[in-house]
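Look at a sample.

——
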Amino acid sequence: MVDFVTKGLSSRLAMIISPLFVLAVLGVFLWQVDLRPQITPDFFFSTDSEIYKQDKRIADEFPFQQQILLNVTTAGSIADPNYHEKIDTLTQRILSVQGVSDVNSITRGPDDLEAARENPLWRRMLIGNNEESSFVVAFVNTDDFEPLVKKIEHIAEQEDNKWFDVRISGLPYIVEQIRRNLTQDMKTFTLGAVVLSAIVLFAVFRSVPVVIGALISSITAAMLTLIIQSFMGIPIGILTANLGTIVFVLTQSHVIFLVANWVNAARANKDAKLRETLKHTLPASFWAGMTTLLGFSSLIFVEAKPLNQLGIGGAIGTAAALFCAYTVFPSFLRLAKINPLEFTYALAKNFPLPRKIAVTLTILTIWIALGVGLTGMTKLETDPSLLSYFKEDSKLYDGLYHIDENGGSNPLLLVIKRQDGDTLDNSRSYDRMWELQQDLAAHDAVGSVISLPVIMAEGDEHWLGQLLPWNILLDILSKPQFGSVAKSFVNEDRTKALFMLRMKESGRERDRLEIIDEIEKIPAQHGFTLSAVGGTYYLQGELAAAVAASMTTGIITLIILFGVIAFIISGTIFVTVAVMICASCISALVIGTLGHARIPVDIISSPSMNICLGLIVDDMIHLTVTAKRHLKDKTKKGLRDWQAWVDALNTQSWPAIVSTLTIMIGFSVFALSDFPPSQRFGLEIVYGACLAVIIALGVFPFLATITEKDKAKIERKTKKAAKIKE
């Protein structure tokens, strides 16, 4: 089968078809693919998630609009007439923006500042802590946030001055900032990956055809991935925005191993040499691709929508990378005159290690992995603050932090009903809800609470409201002429009410779900049952739990699957166990380091672990397949023969090192991002790739060939190390 495929790939017909294929992919890409990231407020979960459905049911039952918050701080007093004049101007300008349905401020809503101070609703909604600032709240009735946010930013910049400091926040604004960051990152990463890869490849191989072929193959694979995604109806989202760069780098890895085996091929005739190169490289690349595909596929079954989309896109990209590397690049390989950089050979010559050094390195790796992993995992932060998504010196971080400190920034929605089944439009329920309101507001993680009793308190401020029964007043506040405000906080049959909590993100040291568990117990103390929980705060908490669970189960599952593939390839239990131990070590080292360094694991950076595992397994597969090929020498006993691995390392350590170097440099461009999650994603892969190549080349061959004598030696050294430690 391999012979048949390699003959086809190396044929003259394939050489003619490949440029036509590249041009066809380019044409379809330009026609079909929309490169604008699509980020919406509900990007956290897929539509079939029960958690997401519950949140949507709350929104349907208690309709309310998204809000953009403008916090305006003054060096003087918010009672200053000049401040009021500026607030009124800002309010009117915001109100005139298309997509804004209404605006509340201390000059629009309450009668005056004093009325806002005395009214529970306006005080919580419009006045900051210590009365050093006030809020302008813009209600948004559009899903197209880009032009809306641009106009509001423009207005804020014009009104901002030394004594009138305007900060912007709110979910629509946050969503738009994430979209902008991803858009900029796509441009930066694409250009950076192409330029840096070209420099590295030319420096190592000193061949223009190799560089051009590698770039064309990698870019074609990235375009093909995005085309297939587009036809499947999967837009570019919060994670798939990085997919093009990932596929580009994956293709580079296949190309480098092809070039290395071309250099090592014995045949002089180019046709025969190409067939030999493809024959030796394709099986290893196929199985390496399978492990990478499994790594991405494990994300498909996670409920979180971004991870789900990355899993699908990554699986497509893995197949595209393998396909393009073996259909497009061979045409350029025929033309190549390669003069490899001696320095890279010098690095590779350090492998294989002398067996004694390999024993020591293995023991150290396992001990360090256990120590770092076990201690670091307990410190791993998998539910980071919303503030960690933005740089501390950015305007958004400043605005979000300030608003968070002045009443909370992240909404949590609680739907309550009476335990005895009574309705909520009577004085008994009203009194109990006031007590619940006060207890919820007293929780240290809650910035402010807006609820039905707070809304009703606004009606009580008017003389007519003081004369009317509570249920009649509720009917009046539910009518359109009063903005149907009550409908956002009580359902039609008056059996359920909504409490909207603005939760604090700054200084939060506990997981969101832990805090929510505490809050969920409060309604029962006042005779209420919790009917539903929703809001961004809750969705992010569940998302964090899903990410943490997927990391744990995903890593364990992948290690087992990689072991199965290793057994299929090698047919020996020693290679299988060696693959699983090395994969476990890389997982423990990366996760443990993140924990000790207090680097949060968020939805964007979490997939880096899957990629790191794929990298180490890829190198080990190439080594195993090559070692098996060298066993044709009858003097070698099998895959436990050290010499077979020495021979494999002599040819495969060089492409493994060059491939790792390319990956590290390719993903290092993520450090240029203004979006911290993207930075963490890229730098984690850089770190993991460095560890992976050391373990794959230095530890794996020894573990695959371990003998009873080696076991005894390791036991003695381990016992000695344990005594020293004691």
